[in-house]
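## retry 2 of 3
previous attempt timed out at serialization; input unchanged, resubmitting
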Amino acid sequence: MKHIGFLAIATAMGVAAAAPASATVLMPGQSGVAFSAFNAATRGTRLAEIETGTTGATTYTGFLRSAVYQNTLGTLDFYYQVAISTIDAGDEVYNLTTAGFLGYTVDALVDTTDFDGAGIFAAANNPNLQGPPGSTTTASRNGSGSVVRADFGDNGLEAGDQTSATYIFRTNATGYNLGGTFTTQDGSVAQRANFQPTGAVPEPATWAMMLLGFGGIGFALRRLRTRAPRLSYAA
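## retry succeeded, writing output
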């Protein structure tokens, strides 16, 4: 039993060490969650990036930008930005969604700066954008947890040459591939293949179930030991 107790404690310590620290955790089924300001000191190293046109959209043109960074905690951050070149009068790009996050922890962060200099990302220039903590953009996640979304609110893109902030979803993933999607919407939809997380430490809920399992095993062993029949032998 001492060994089981030690294993449970060690496992809990491992979870605490592995879980990315951030202010805004986005749980499956949540909506209207405020983004937290990104801490630039945790940015880490860029692993991949991609910029494409708004393929599929008929009411606006522009660019979809995304990247994967390994943050200073050792896990992966997924970056997304929308830049509008032209848009039909009366239309507004009001959100971006990205898929492929099923089973991962996700923290919602936002960066309004031009953090990569001559790279593909630019400083946000939406005149309605107030930046954290005043930004009206909120994060949402569907019930299964596979899709995360940034709802722009008053920060929607409704004129040419407007660029959104960069929305960053911090995960517990340790790998990535191009099996996900990146989508923007107004009167029409632009969508393309995009980065998604792969390979990760278990989510806290999974660890909690494991710890409960260890506890159950220990309880069962104690019950078996106390209920075992005592045998007596005649002299």
